[in-house]
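Hi all, a correction to my earlier message: I attached the wrong file for Thiamine diphosphokinase. Here's the right sequence:
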Amino acid sequence: MIVHILAGGPSEFVPNLLAYHHEGVCWVGVDRGVVELLKAGIVPKRAFGDFDSISEKELQWLKERVPHLDVWPSEKDQTDTDIAIDWALAQKPEKIRLFGATGGRLDHLFGNIQTIMKGSDGAIELIDRQNIVTIHRKGEHVIEQSDSYTYVSFIPITPIKELTLEGFKYPLTRKDVPLGSTLCISNELIHSFGTFSFSEGILMMIRSKDEKQGF
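and the right structure:
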């Protein structure tokens, strides 16, 4: 089983959900994301949230259409998205994809990045119109070249020991990467497959489409 979660982030950052809608996918809605799923013609199996971002009329509409709608209090120790991630992990799926989790408030963005750290290597993908974000732990990992996501960046969540990049335009060999480093931003694969490996730490990988932006 694959679980797809749509959170309540700004809709302009959400990719075409129907491109990810296929047999074997379990959809989960979070807060306003439930409304957006139904508007796209997708009925989620589960829905979570305090639903403080929608009207009472919209909430009643959801209750009539969603089989399992879990309404939580607004004052709680987890975000709505975090609750949905915990439920999804308990189902032991092959993969979890999180949409609607970027744009808007930065506190929610960084909180959502924290939630995807709960999964094993690359098991949870945070996806928007331009990026795919995954978290990886020590070991060797294989990455396939993509015509859509041409840029590959590695950002240390913790200090990284002995990072090696093979098959990349800018290779590395057993390089220590400290927190705060931008050394591994905007790399590119030059072969069909590449590998990255490191002996210690937690690394965030971001695959991005070329939108001709630079900072």
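Sorry for the mix-up. Helices lie at 32-39, 56-65, 80-90, 106-116.
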